[in-house]
C-alpha cells in the first residue's frame, strides 16, 4: 500500500486518538485498550513498509501517548510519591530518551571546548574560575591538598548553600528552555566549559588524581543531574518549536508538564550531591582510595541505572501488563 493512501485511510482515526489524549473525548478503559491495539497494528505496518517515514515517527509518538493514557487509568494502589519515582518518571524518561542522548552529546561537546580552551589559552582558567580561586587552589596543590577549597566553612552551612546553588543552576538549565531550547544550551555551555577548564587545570598542575578523588564524590550526582535538567529544558523548547499535530499551546502545556516531572526527579540527587560535598568531600584525601571509588562508582551505578536502564524495564513491564489485561 502506498504511504499516501495509508495516511488517508487512517487519518481520521489518528486525529480522534489525539482528541482522546488531549482529554477532549472521553473513553472508558476498554475503548482505550482497543484504540491502543489498533494503533500498534498501524505502527507495526508503518515500521515494516515506511521505516524512515515521518508517519512512523508520528505513530510511535502517538502510541507512547495513548500507552500512558491507558496506564494512568489503572488505579494506583501504592503511595503517590513512590508511584511518581517508580513508574511515572521512568515512563517519561523512556518516552523522551532521545533528549537525554542529545543533552549528553552537547555536554561532552561543551566540556571538550572547555578543555581545549584551557590547553591553548593559559589565561582561560583564570577568566572562567576566577584568579582568587585559582591562586588559592595552586597553593593547596603545593601543600598536597588539592581539595582544600572544600574544607572551608561549617559542614551544615556549606551543605545548605551548595544545595540551594545547585538547585538554582538546575532550574536555570530547565526554565531557559522556554527560549526554544537555546537558553538551556547556553546555560549548559557555561557550566560544561567551566567543568572542562576546571579538570584540565588540575591535570596541568599534576593533581588530577587527587582532585578526582574528591570532586567526583559529589560530582557524579551533581553533573548527571545537570545533564538531565538540560534534557528537560530541551524537551520544553522542542514542545514550542515542534508542536506536531497539537496546537502550539497544547504542545507547550504537555511539554512543560512532562519535563517538569522529570526535573523534579533530579532534586533528590541534587540534595544528595550537596550533602556529600558538604560532609564527605572535605575528607576525600584522608579516606581509603577504595572508599572513594565505592562512593563514586556506586553513585554512577545508581543514577545511571535510574535514568538509562530502569526506564526500559518499566516500559516493558507495563506494556506486558497492559497486553495481558486487554487480551
Automatic annotation (TrEMBL):
Protein name (record): Uncharacterized membrane protein SpoIIM, required for sporulation
Keywords, alphabetical: Membrane, Transmembrane, Transmembrane helix
Signal peptide: none
Transmembrane residue ranges: 99-120, 173-203, 215-242, 262-280, 289-309
Xref: PANTHER family: SLR1478 PROTEIN
Alphabetical list of InterPro entries matching this protein: SpoIIM-like (IPR002798)
UniProt KW Mitochondrion keyword: no
Keyword Cytoplasm applies: no
Amino acid at each position: 500500500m502506498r504511504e499516501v493512501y495509508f495516511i488517508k485511510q487512517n487519518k481520521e482515526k489518528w486525529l480522534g486518538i489525539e482528541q482522546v489524549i488531549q482529554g477532549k473525548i472521553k473513553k472508558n478503559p476498554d475503548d482505550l485498550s482497543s484504540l491502543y491495539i489498533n494503533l500498534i497494528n498501524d505502527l507495526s505496518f508503518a515500521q515494516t513498509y515506511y521505516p524512515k517515514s515521518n508517519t512512523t515517527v508520528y505513530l510511535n509518538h502517538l502510541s507512547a501517548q495513548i500507552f500512558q493514557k491507558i496506564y494512568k487509568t489503572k488505579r494506583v494502589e501504592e503511595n503517590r510519591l513512590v508511584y511518581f519515582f517508580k513508574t511515572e518518571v521512568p515512563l517519561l524518561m523512556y518516552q523522551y530518551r532521545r533528549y537525554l542522548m542529545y543533552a549528553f552529546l552537547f555536554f561532552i561537546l561543551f566540556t571538550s571546548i572547555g578543555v581545549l580552551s584551557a590547553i591553548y589559552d593559559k589565561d582561560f582558567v583564570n577568566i572562567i574560575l576566577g584568579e582568587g580561586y585559582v591562586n588559592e587552589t595552586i597553593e593547596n596543590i603545593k601543600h598536597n591538598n588539592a581539595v582544600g577549597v572544600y574544607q572551608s566553612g561549617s559542614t551544615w552551612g556549606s551543605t545548605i548553600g551548595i544545595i540551594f546553588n545547585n538547585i538554582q543552576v538546575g532550574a536555570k538549565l530547565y526554565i531557559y528552555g522556554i527560549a526554544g531550547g537555546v537558553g538551556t544550551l547556553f546555560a549548559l555551555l557555561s557550566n560544561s566549559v567551566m567543568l572542562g577548564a576546571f579538570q584540565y587545570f588540575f591535570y596541568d598542575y599534576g593533581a588530577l588524581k587527587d582532585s578526582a578523588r574528591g570532586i567526583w564524590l559529589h560530582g557524579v550526582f551533581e553533573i548527571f543531574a545537570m545533564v538531565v535538567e538540560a534534557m528537560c529544558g530541551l524537551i520544553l523548547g522542542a514542545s514550542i518549536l515542534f508542536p506536531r499535530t497539537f496546537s502550539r499551546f497544547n504542545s507547550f502545556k504537555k511539554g512543560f508538564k512532562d519535563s517538569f516531572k522529570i526535573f523534579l526527579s533530579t532534586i533528590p540527587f541534587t540534595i544528595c550531591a550537596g550533602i556529600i560535598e558538604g560532609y564527605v568531600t572535605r575528607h576525600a584525601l584522608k579516606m581509603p582510595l577504595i572508599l572513594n571509588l565505592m562512593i563514586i562508582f556506586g553513585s554512577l551505578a545508581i543514577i545511571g541505572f535510574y535514568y538509562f536502564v530502569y526506564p526500559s524495564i518499566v516500559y516493558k513491564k507495563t506494556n506486558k501488563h497492559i497486553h495481558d489485561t486487554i487480551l
